[in-house]
Amino acid sequence: MVDHPTHDDPALDSVVTWLRDATAPDPERLFGGAVRQSIDEVLDGPRTGRWGFEQLEKTEKTYVGTKIEIIVRSALELERGPVLDLAIKGVPVDLKWAMGSQWQIPIEALGEICLCIGGLKKMTQFQVGVVRCTEEHLNTGQNRDGKRTLSEAGRTAMLHLVDPSPLPPNFVAEMDPDLRAEIVDLPTMQARITALFQSLPYTAIPRNAVTTIARTTGDPMRRTRADSHAEDPLGDYAVLSAKYGNRLLEGLGRKPMEADHFMSVPKADIQALPASARGALPQAVRERFGLD
Q1: pLDDT by residue (tens digit) across 13-24?
Q2: Per residue in 44-79, pLDDT tens?
Q3: 113-120 vs 148-149, strand pairing mode
Q4: What is the mean pLDDT of residues 188-206?
Q5: Residue 231's pLDDT band (cuts 50, 70, 90)
Q6: Domain-by-domain residue ranges, the chain?
Q7: What is the distance between the alpha carbons of residues 135 and 45, in angstroms, rounded to a whole number?
Q8: Do domains 10-166 and 174-288 have the same CATH topology?
Q9: 20 to 30 A from 32, CA-CA: which of 126, 215, 277, 283?
Q10: CATH of the domain spanning 10-166
Q11: Confidence of residue 173 (pLDDT cuts 50, 70, 90)
Q12: 3-state DSSP of the chain
């Protein structure tokens, strides 16, 4: 792929310039996040307990492309085009997704601009580019639906927005396989949640991973807290949220978590905070963790 304007295709240049501006300063984050979110939503871990792309059915893998289109269009605040998927500055644009970056170009996109998002290396990487799908950019062969693939010339002509980059991982998929198997095989939601946080202290765990391990669409975080009817289920650990825990993590010399992440911390470490660090914490945080 190339990254410089074409000059002989003003509409293509306009679309590429708009996309680069709209996704700056981090197009990898926007597009990678869209792909990750799409896959995770189709996996539906809280209901199915699945975490890996390879666990999807064939029809579900196809639906990932539809999800990516919806999420990218929403993230870029674009309207759906009258014929193709998108309209960018009045220019019709089709959004194409392919697991192995072998994009299938439909008849209606012949001669049109395509925003191509593709997976690579068994879905561990992704790339994004824009190309006008003219005859010289397509192979002559076609499938039963009349779809054709990009030729070598088409791939060379593609203007890249994201070079091959790591796809944001699914937390559960990245867990040690033996530990994951041990946790997911536990018979109750409470046992799985407790084992997850006790086994991975000082590890930021996204909510989607917690609900996948718990196999619930409800609020599994209530199972990390003591109440009037039960003792603290995590024993010697406290679970911090990004909302209330990041200032505490700062006092412990740890990096803050992103929103919607959680982390287990030994209660002994919290209680060992020096008076100077405690005093720097907001009153609400001190009260929440018994540091007054």
Answers
A1: 999 999 999 999
A2: 999 999 999 999 999 999 999 999 999 999 999 999
A3: unpaired
A4: 95
A5: low
A6: 10-166, 174-288
A7: 42
A8: no
A9: 215
A10: 3.40.600.10
A11: very high
A12: CECCCCCCCHHHHHHHHHHHHHHCCCHHHHHHHHHHHHHHHHHCHHHHCCCCHHHCCHHHHHHHHHHHHHHHHHHCCCCCCCCCCEEECCEEEEEEEECCCCCEECHHHCCCEEEEEEEECCCCEEEEEEEECCHHHECCCCCCCCCEEECHHHHHHCEEEEEEEECCCCHHHHCCHHHHHHHHCCCCHHHHHHHHHHHCECCCEEHHHHHHHHCCCCCHHHHHCCECCECCCCCCEEEEEHHHHHHHHHHCCCCCCCCCEEEEEEHHHHHCCCHHHHHCCCHHHHHHCCCC
Place of tokens 């041990």: 182
Residue 1 pLDDT exceeds 50: no
CATH class of this structure's domain 174-288: mainly alpha
